[in-house]
Amino acid sequence: MTKQELIKKIADDAEVTQKQAAAMLDSFMSAVTDAVAAGDKIQLTGFGTFECKTRNARTGFNPITKAPVEIPETKVPSFKAGKAFKDAVAK
C-alpha cells in the first residue's frame, strides 16, 4: 500500500476529504518522527510502540579485504508491534 492509497483509505473511513486525510497522516508521521528523534517513546495500545534504540559500537569486517572495521555506536528507530496487531496479522 502506498501513502496515497493509505490517504484514500483514511479519507473513506473517517468520511473526510483526501486533503484532510493527508494532513492528518502527515501530522501523525511528523509527531512520531519528532518524538522518537527527541528520545521519547510513543505507545499505541493494541497497535505498537515507536522508540529510539541505541546500537552499540562493534567491530565488523570489510567483505572484500577481510580487514576489521570499527562500526560506531548509532541510534536507530524501532517499532514493536502490539498484541492486537500481531494477532490480526497472524490470522
The biggest beta sheet reads: 3 strands, antiparallel
User: Helix-strand pattern, N to C?
Assistant: HHEEEEEH
Order of strands across the widest beta sheet?
1-2-5
Instruction: Catalogue the unreliable spans.
Output: none
Beginning-to-end CA distance, first to last residue = 19 Å
Number of domains: 2
Spatial shape: elongated
- Tally of DSSP helical segments: 3
What percent of the residues sit in helical stretches (DSSP H or I)?
40-55%
Q: What is the alpha-carbon Rg in Å?
A: 19 Å
Total beta-strand segments = 5
Structural class: alpha+beta
Percent of residues in β-strands? 25-35%
Overall average pLDDT = 95
Please tell me about this protein's structure.
By secondary structure, this protein is α+β, with helices and mostly antiparallel strands. The protein has 2 domains: 1-40; 50-83, no CATH class. Helix content is 44%, strand content 30%. The chain has 3 helices and 5 strands. The strands form 2 sheets. Strands 1-2-5 form a 3-stranded antiparallel sheet. The longest helix is centred in the first third of the chain and has 20 residues, at 18-37. It is elongated. The model has no long low-confidence stretch (mean pLDDT 95).
